[in-house]
Structure formats: C-alpha cells, structure tokens
Design goal:
elongated, disordered N terminus, 7 helices, alpha+beta, 5-stranded mixed sheet, 2 domains, 6-stranded mixed sheet, Immunoglobulin-like
Length: 305
C-alpha cells in the first residue's frame, strides 16, 4: 500500500524547515490561512471528481447483468447543466472573497501603531538596510522590535530583485528607480530567514539576510549601541558596496545622504499603502515617508504601539 508513504510525505511538510507553514507575524498568518482555504477548496474539487470517476467505473462498466440505465440518445439535462455551472461559481467565490478581502486589508498599515521605517536596497549581490529615523545602516541583516509594524521601502541599485521573509509575509519586488512598500511584523523574538527570490546572476545564491526580532527595549539598546560604537559609512564604502560581489554582515552608525530615492510610487502612510497621493503640480509620486514620517519612526524605535 502506498498510503503510508503519502501520509509520511504530508506530515513531513509540517516540519520546521518549511518556514512558510510556520508564520511568526500577522501578515504571514493571514497569508497561511488563505493558502489553507485554497488548498481545501482544491482538495474538495479533486475528491469530488475522483468520486464521480469511481462511481462511473463501478456503475456503468460493461458486465453481464449490469442494471445501470443505458440511454444512447440522451442529449442533455438542464438540471445537471445548472449544477455544474453553479459548483465552479461557488468554488471561485470561496477562494476569491477571502483573498480579495485580505489582500486589501493587508495593503494598509495597522492604524493603532506607529511603524518603524527601513529603506531596503538590493545590490549585486548583497542587501543594504537603512534606518532613516535612527540614521544607521546594516548590510545583510536587520534588527526590529517585536510587536511593531515595520514599513520596508524597497528599491534596487542593480537588476530587479525580490525581498522575501517567508515567516513574516509574502515577497515584493525591488526595482531601480522605484520605491515599493511592504509592511511586515514579527510577533515574537527570533531570527527569521530572508533572501532574494529572483535570479540576478552568479551571486544570487549568496543574497541571504536575517531579520532579528527582539523586544522593544532591547532594540532601542541596540540602536544606541550602533550609534555610539559602529563606524560611519563613508562615501567610498558605499561605492564599494555598489560593485559586483558578495559581502558579509556590517553595521554603520551613519551613511551618506542621497543613497535612497526621495520619491515613492503612489503610496503614503496617511493615504494607505497603495493609494495615490496628490502632490502640488500634479505629480503622481509622493514624498518618501522616510523623510515625511520621521517623527513616527522615531517613536517606533522605542516600540510604541
């Protein structure tokens, strides 16, 4: 029998190495519930079709004495046509309604908390993270407070890439000349694995980073320690990071001005993540929340919310 092997394969998928199935924040938990809903709907369809197939094989197979009705001139049934039209509609509704509702819900930051803002730049083949309110920077790792929404402003100074932390939420693109938003939150302390999910050359495999979630007080202590003890990033060091190649972890107490775009692509903290914000002169882009919302980000540094 093959069913024990199948059961073992399904149970193996629940192991800790399958991080998507072990969410550690509200965004990832919502997305996992959507995955479960879609999976259940698909499983129901598969089981229903298999059951009909087995019934047809058993009931209508050609054998002596088979009492099943035989209607070679049958040309249709309005009742059956209505049924197999409504069943897909219901299945699509079961999948589409929660998906659309949760997608729009996740497009907005929680109103009850001030976010921590982190500017993310994907490079070849490394990650640069800048904290505009704290004016510190890291390479290939991020430190965040638990229980606080974090708004990641994403761009690239290299080919298009993707930013992905499976245990905290879905991925988002990083693109040169554009700034795209993604908010995530870690509900409990831990180290969460992140990486690029878009092939970008021979160093793609090394584009790994960690998000270290710590209590708010510990995060504030870390920020103060970086500001007091870490070296500043000189312009020459920034130019070195822009070059092709990999890099290890690094921490900086300051970074040069102008290293991150000052315009976003149609989003603001006040108007919602994906709502266009009107600005003087009819421009479609809004001023970067990195500058506009620095006071709120400073409050988020202390874990308020």
């Amino acid at each position: 029998m093959l069913w024990p092997l199948g059961a073992c394969a399904l149970l193996a998928g629940c192991g800790p190495q399958y991080v998507v199935l072990h969410p550690a924040g509200p965004v990832a938990s919502t997305e996992l519930h959507l995955i479960e809903t879609v999976s259940i709907a698909m499983a129901a369809v598969i089981l229903f079709v298999v059951a009909l197939f087995v019934i047809a094989l058993v009931r209508f197979r050609d054998r002596p004495g088979n009492k099943a009705p035989y209607s070679p001139d049958w040309d249709g049934s309005r009742t059956l046509e209505v049924i197999w039209f409504l069943i897909p509609v219901l299945i699509l509704a079961v999948i589409a309604v929660p998906t659309v509702r949760q997608t729009y819900a996740l497009a907005h930051l929680p109103k009850q908390a001030d976010p921590l803002i982190i500017d993310v730049t994907s490079l070849d083949w490394k990650w640069l993270f800048e904290y505009p309110a704290q004016h510190i920077a890291t390479v290939n790792y991020i430190e965040v407070p638990t229980g606080t929404p974090v708004l990641y402003e994403l761009t690239a100074n290299s080919p298009m890439n993707t930013f992905w932390v499976p245990q905290l939420g879905g991925m988002e693109y990083t693109m040169p000349g554009r700034v795209l938003p993604l908010w995530l939150q870690a509900d409990k302390p831990g180290v969460y694995w992140g990486r690029s999910a878009n092939f970008s050359g021979r160093g793609f495999v090394d584009m790994l980073f960690d998000i270290q979630a710590v209590p708010a007080a510990e995060f504030q202590t870390w920020v103060q320690g970086v500001q007091q003890t870490a070296p500043a990033m000189a312009a020459a060091e920034y130019q070195r990071l822009l070059k092709f190649g990999t890099a290890g972890r690094a921490t900086y107490s300051a970074y040069p001005a102008g290293t991150f775009p000052q315009t976003t692509n149609g989003f603001s903290l006040q108007g919602g993540m994906y709502m266009p914000t009107a600005v003087p002169g009819g421009a479609s882009a809004a001023a970067s929340p990195s500058a506009a919302m620095a006071p709120s980000a400073a409050m988020a540094m202390g874990g308020n919310g």
